[in-house]
Amino acid sequence: MEDKIVQIGKYKVKVIRDACIGAASCIAVSPTVFQLDGENKAVIQEGAMDSEENVLMAAQSCPTKAIVVIDAETGKQVWPE
Ligand code: SF4
After folding, report:
1. Which residue lies with its CA nearest to atom 8 of ligand 1?
2. Domain count of the fold of the chain
3. What is the pLDDT tens value at each position of the chain, 81 positions in all?
4. 56 and 69 in contact (C-beta within 8 Å)?
5. How many A from CA of 71 to the centre of ligand 1?
6. Contact by Cβ (8 Å): 48, 6
7. Are 17 and 5 in contact (CB under 8 A)?
8. Cα–Cα–Cα angle for 40, 53, 59, nearest 5°?
């Protein structure tokens, strides 16, 4: 299954499902954006809203670097570096 990409502010964000271990640190940092689904994998909420800084922090909190953040304008990957 293709990992879903959601735009939040200037970022495009996706969770690599295969890399997610359900540690839920992303949810602790940004519960409006990330939630666990029935398979204990993080999913991004439809129409998710949060500050760009907080979304990036949530991505950086993930122990397996399962959250990828891309600058939508430049196409550059911001995280993981
Ligand atoms: S922090 Fe990473 S491993 Fe944990 S639920 Fe979020 S995406 Fe998955």
Report:
1. 20
2. 1
3. 678 899 999 999 999 999 999 999 999 999 999 999 999 999 998 888 999 999 999 999 999 999 999 999 999 999 999
4. yes
5. 20
6. yes
7. no
8. 30
Ligand 1 pocket, residues with Cβ under 6 angstroms: 15, 20-26, 34, 42, 61-62, 64, 66-67
Residue to mutate (ligand 1; options 4, 16, 26; most atoms within 8 A of CB): 26
User: What is residue 80's three-state secondary structure?
Assistant: coil
Q: Cα–Cα distance between 42 and 33 in angstroms, integer?
A: 10
Q: Centre a 10 Å sphere on the Cβ of residue 64 and count the other Cβ atoms it contains.
A: 13
- CATH at residue 67: 3.30.70.20
Residue range(s) defining the domain that contains residue 66? 5-79
